[in-house]
Write a structure and sequence with these properties.
This protein has 16 helices and 16 strands. It is of the alpha+beta class. The chain binds one RNA strand through helix 3, strand 6, strand 10, strand 11 and helix 12.
RNA sequence: GUGGAUGUAGCUUAGUUGGUUAAAGCGCCAGAUUGUGGCUCUGGAGAUCGUGGGUUCGAGUCCCAUCUUCCACCCCA
């Protein structure tokens, strides 16, 4: 084959073999979100660039170098969304969703875009399942949100997804902590790697996250954020932990857990996958973001799940999901008259919700049967001149070989349903 | 963005120190008395060897560039 071009770098087609699995995972997430009272929101795939600059913070890597930003034909700067939170906050405010009363609970399942060097689990177009919760500063909300994600993982059969937890405090206590970190790292600034050196002034908390051995060694003895949390933040954090414990949700405290977006406050968390070696998603509280975007001061929190990563994890752990039913009844036909009959019977079955099919490729009987077997049809039926004349045909169970004569006139569907449910009963 | 690998039919791969029409398995299509699939047998379609240059009498095999995918870093979902 000689295609004129391939799919763009960092994008992937989801073919039927994938989409089936995707939909099952999405169904679990959607159902879990809706059990918790969240409703779906759909926002534009692109926004005015300043929304992300203000929302995520201009010194973050994402905003500085990973955004798909371009001018539209009228000269406006727009950006393909690199994440879901900023747009959701904007839409929540713009549509006055808070007027229905707090809390506002929203979820979304959207493609996002970041210009990065692709790798397994890191695409330029990736899908995020996100959940955002507005209007509550209570620690019980943090716990409910985390519980939602953990239940979804459990329902999907993912065994190795953990929970890492930290609190990065509020702007007040973080200011003190930043100062303390700066002082600590400045004392041995010659040991820091170049990237960390540049982080020293802009965001010293990122140094805690550095994988460089020397930086890690330094970071290990660095002041802990927990020692600098103000009374309120400290209490909030310990209550979150207490709620999680009550729910039986295990977690690891990780003082070095710093999220990459500037809007986070207090609780931050990630869902690391042991087998994959990176997190399936993460989130936290962002009590200052709504106000930053121009809304009333509103506490909020949320998380995002990398759907592509989730699918990798499911495949890696060989989680079993039921196969899709492509065809339950296959009606083979011989001759033009029988083809017409097959098409109408199939159509009738469809109207009763039974997946059915007949030949549309002009194949012979043998090839039709072969196709029926390949698609996994439970039953097959052959229609020829004899059947048309007698008004009866033989319905065959493809796995047991058992057969049964059925009417192919008006009582066809009744006959079929009786037979097929009997077969179902035999299985249990 | 930095560093390192990779690329042969739809899929998984073989292809000797560069030498005639580039192999195989699986899959696909068609036959083996137009009336019944899964097994078997036979046949067929399908690759300008990622792309573009270069070296050579001659390149899938060597060189350069470029693209893709993958790995590490960076970062994150």
């Amino acid at each position: 084959m000689d295609l004129i071009t391939k799919a763009p770098k960092g994008t992937a087609d989801l073919v039927p073999a994938d989409t089936h699995l995707w939909r099952l995972a999405e169904q679990v997430l959607i159902s879990e979100a809706e059990l918790n009272g969240f409703a779906e929101i759909r926002t534009p795939a692109f926004e005015h660039t300043e929304l992300f600059q203000r929302g995520m913070g201009d010194v973050t890597d994402v905003v500085e170098k990973q955004m798909y930003t371009f001018e539209d034909k009228a000269g406006r700067s727009v950006t393909l969304r690199p994440e879901g939170t900023a747009g959701t906050v904007r839409a929540m405010l713009e549509n006055g969703l808070y007027n229905a009363g707090y809390p506002v609970k929203l979820y979304y399942n959207i493609p996002c875009y970041r210009y990065e060097k692709p790798q397994a689990g890191r695409m330029r177009e990736f899908r995020t399942f996100g959940v955002e919760l507005f209007g509550t500063a209570e620690p019980i909300a943090d716990a409910q949100l985390i519980a939602l994600a953990m239940s979804a993982f459990r329902r999907m059969g993912l065994e190795d997804v953990g929970l890492q937890l930290n609190s990065i405090g509020c702007p007040t206590c973080r200011k003190e902590y930043h100062a303390a970190l700066k002082e600590y790292f400045s004392a041995s600034r010659e040991k820091l790697c170049p990237t960390c050196l540049s982080r020293l002034d802009r965001n010293p908390m990122r140094i805690l996250d550095c994988k460089n051995p020397e930086c890690q060694e330094l970071a290990a003895a660095a002041p802990k954020i927990t020692e600098y949390l103000c009374g309120d933040c400290r209490q909030h954090f310990s209550q979150v932990q207490a709620y999680l414990a009550a729910l039986g949700i295990g977690f690891t405290l990780d003082p070095g857990l710093v999220r990459g977006l500037d809007y986070y406050t207090r609780t931050v968390f990630e869902f690391p996958s042991q087998t994959l070696g990176f997190a399936l998603g993460g989130g936290g509280r962002y009590d200052g973001l709504v106000e930053e975007i121009g809304g009333p001061s509103t506490p909020a929190l949320g998380f995002g799940l990398g759907m592509d990563r989730l699918m990798l994890a499911l495949k890696e752990q060989h989680v079993d999901f039921p196969e899709p039913v492509k065809c339950e009844v296959y009606i083979a036909a011989m001759g033009p008259a029988a083809q017409v009959k097959a098409l109408t019977l199939v159509n009738t079955l469809h109207s009763c919700g039974v997946p059915a099919d007949c030949d549309i490729c002009g194949r012979g009987l043998k090839a039709q049967m072969k196709y029926a077997g390949k698609t996994g049809a439970k039953f097959s039926m052959v229609l020829g001149e004899d059947e048309l004349a007698s008004g009866k045909a033989v319905l065959k169970d493809m796995s047991t070989g058992e057969t049964r004569k059925v009417d192919i006139g008006d009582s066809f569907v009744d006959d079929y349903l009786t037979f097929s449910t009997q077969q179902e009963d035999l299985r249990f």
